[in-house]
Write a structure and sequence with these properties.
DNA binding; 218 residues; Arc Repressor Mutant, subunit A; 2 domains; transcription; GntR family transcriptional regulator; globular; DNA-binding transcription factor activity; 2 strands; Four Helix Bundle (Hemerythrin (Met), subunit A); mainly alpha
Length: 218
C-alpha cells in the first residue's frame, strides 16, 4: 500500500506496447482480416515473448476498437456491424467538419505542405493496404493542421477503427481504388490550400460518402 501523498511508480509497459504495435501493423497489413482469431500462444511464439505482454497488448487493441473478445473464441479482429459503420461515419463527419473549418481558417503553409507530401506518397502506393495507410496519414495531417489539441485526441480515439473501416471497404470492393484515391485527395488538399471552406466541406463529404456507399451496398 502506498504512503499517503505519494505516487506509486508506474509499471513499465514498453513490451506490451511494442507487441500491440506489431499486431496492429499485421492487422492493417492484411495478415489478420476482420473476424480472424488472435491466439495468445501463437502470437507469443511468433513474437518471441511470454503470453503476459500479448494479453496486455490485446486488451490495448480492444480499447482501440480493433479487437473484440468472444467467450467461445477469445480475441478476434473486429468485424464492423452496420451500426458500427453508421456510427463511425457520423462521428467522423462531425470531427472532420470542424477540422476542415479550422484548417481553412488558420493552417500554415507548412501544414498544407504536409498534406501535399502525403498525396505524393499515395501516387507511389504499391497495393491497397499501403494506400489505406496513406489515406489515414492524410487525415492525420488534416487534424494536425487544425491546431486543436482536443480534436486531434478525439480523432486518435477512433483512428484505428476508421483504418479498419477503410480496410473493410477495400475488402468489399477495391476496383479502381488505387487509381482514384490519389486524385481524390489531391482535390481535397487543393480546396484546403485555396481556403475554400464550402468546397472543401463538400469534397470531404463526397469522399466519406463513397466509402460508405461501398460498405452499405448503395
Amino acid at each position: 500500500m502506498s504512503e499517503p501523498g505519494r505516487v506509486v511508480p508506474a509499471r513499465r509497459r514498453g513490451l506490451a506496447d511494442e507487441v500491440a504495435d506489431r499486431v496492429r501493423d499485421a492487422i492493417f497489413g492484411g495478415a489478420y482480416p476482420p473476424g480472424a482469431q488472435l491466439r495468445e500462444v501463437e502470437l507469443s511464439e511468433a513474437l518471441g515473448v511470454s503470453r503476459g505482454p500479448v494479453r496486455e497488448a490485446l486488451l490495448k487493441l480492444e480499447r482501440e476498437g480493433l479487437v473484440r473478445s468472444e467467450w467461445h473464441r477469445g480475441a478476434i479482429v473486429t468485424t464492423l456491424s452496420d451500426v458500427d459503420v453508421a456510427e463511425l461515419d457520423s462521428l467522423r463527419s462531425a470531427l472532420e467538419q470542424l477540422a476542415v473549418r479550422l484548417v481553412v481558417a488558420s493552417a500554415s503553409d507548412a501544414d498544407l505542405a504536409a498534406l501535399d507530401e502525403v498525396v505524393e506518397r499515395m501516387g507511389r502506393a504499391r497495393d491497397e493496404h499501403e494506400m489505406v495507410r496513406c489515406d489515414i496519414d492524410f487525415h492525420d495531417a488534416v487534424y494536425a493542421a487544425s491546431g486543436h489539441r482536443r480534436l486531434i485526441e478525439a480523432w486518435q480515439a477512433i483512428r484505428s477503427q476508421v483504418h479498419l473501416f477503410l480496410l473493410t471497404r477495400i475488402g468489399v470492393n477495391s476496383e479502381g481504388y488505387l487509381a482514384s484515391i490519389p486524385a481524390e485527395h489531391r482535390r481535397l488538399a487543393s480546396a484546403l490550400r485555396a481556403r475554400d471552406g464550402e468546397k472543401a466541406l463538400e469534397l470531404f463529404a463526397v469522399h466519406r460518402g463513397q466509402a460508405l456507399d461501398v460498405l452499405t451496398g448503395k
